[in-house]
Design goal:
- Helices cover 76% and strands 0% of the residues.
- It is an all-alpha fold.
- The chain has helices spanning 3-45, 67-97, 111-114, 119-122, 129-141, 159-176, 182-264, 270-282, 288-299, 319-331, 336-379, 384-425, 430-467.
- It has four domains: 3-59 and 227-264, no CATH class; 67-221, Up-down Bundle (Histone Acetyltransferase, Chain A); 270-331, no CATH class; 337-379 and 390-427 and 434-467, no CATH class.
Amino acid sequence: MDDAQRKALDAERRLQVKKRVAELSALVDVLATAVESAQRDQQQNGIAAPAEPVAATVPAGPVVLDPSVMAKLEASRVKRIADVVSRQCLAAIKHLMGHKWAWPFNEPVDASKMGLADYHNVISEPMDLGTIRQRIEAQAASTGGGSCAGTESYVYSHPDAVLAHARLVFTNAKRYNPPGSDVHIMACTLAEALEGRWTTTVAPKLADAHASIQSDLEKATAKAAAAQQARLQVHGECTAGELERRVVAAEAALQEAKAALASLCTPLTPDERRALATGMRDMDPHSLGDAVAVVASAAGVDPADVPDVVDIDLESGDPLMLRRLLTFVATAPKKPSVAAAEARKAAALAAQETQRAARAAAAAATRQRRAARLKATGAGSGGGARRRGGRSTTAARARQRAKMREEAAGKAAALSEGARQGNDEEGSEDDEGEDGDAADGDEDAAPADGEDEQDEEEDQEAADMDAGP
């Protein structure tokens, strides 16, 4: 297989891995959506539910009773209230009708017979205890709320309606008859008797009926809630199984993608392995937990399950894991001592560069001054052939010295670069390397000073030659 075919095969494999990673990412998004939906449903109902149900959907929220159950509850409520009306209310009305002063109120008022022409103008809704009694008896005897033959069709749906009509009897009497009259006094007396009788006999039975109605409703609601909870439980079990199946599929796809990605990852070079070992050694101990997490993630295990001591094979370890670890180590904080040593080394190198720059500037200034003196000497008059020969010799020697200085400067720069690389490889001998670099800098400076003195002597010799005959 030639290089072109190998490259094409690698490109195809990389494309397949990218597609698989994209599919895996989509699967993870679906799982995340399902988990979020399950958490919301769990908060609402206490039972997890998936984003895409695998069983019949069970409505969440308040319990809704079946219409047939609601009909039964309503029938029971009506019967209990009707029993209070037909028993306790009827007994209270009969008790009032038996009072010695009740005879004016036991039958309807015959206004024409009694000569009360203005009665119906004053009383808009006449009422009497006998009518109330007949209505209650007719309601009790009828079936389905009808009435007996010969009686007015009327239904008391609640004891409060009976009480309202009974009070109306005495209110009408007190309205039509002036205070102090016999009928007014009798109406006040029977009104008090009505309230007392109602409080002691009807009200307790009515409270018991309402309590029974509420109890029936609570029992029916609890039963419906239990049935709904059972359906939700079955629904949740189906959901849990579906989520578990998806998680298992996602884990298998993840392992497959990791294997494909690891097969495309190139092993570490010797330099990279040395850099990884050095980085692990110089890394801040507080970052070791994060490094273990990187190793655990690459291995597909929980960081909590990783032992305290982990052996990493830099030669034959997983290339993908080693490269992830190398990337982490490159940016991880260093030990305080290592960081301080690197800072000192950087400061020493900066100081050396500053000194070299200063020496180079001084040498350049010296050369400019020398060139200016030589130019001024050559522009002077007289001197003859001997003077011209002396100047030529001096200029040649100056050029030779300048060339020698440039070569010496190049060698010094090469030696400095080699020393700097040696310092990078010798992490534990940083301070000694810095002292050596400083000494080398001082030695580099010495020849420059000597050369400046020699240049001054030669300049003086050239001047003496120019001053000769």
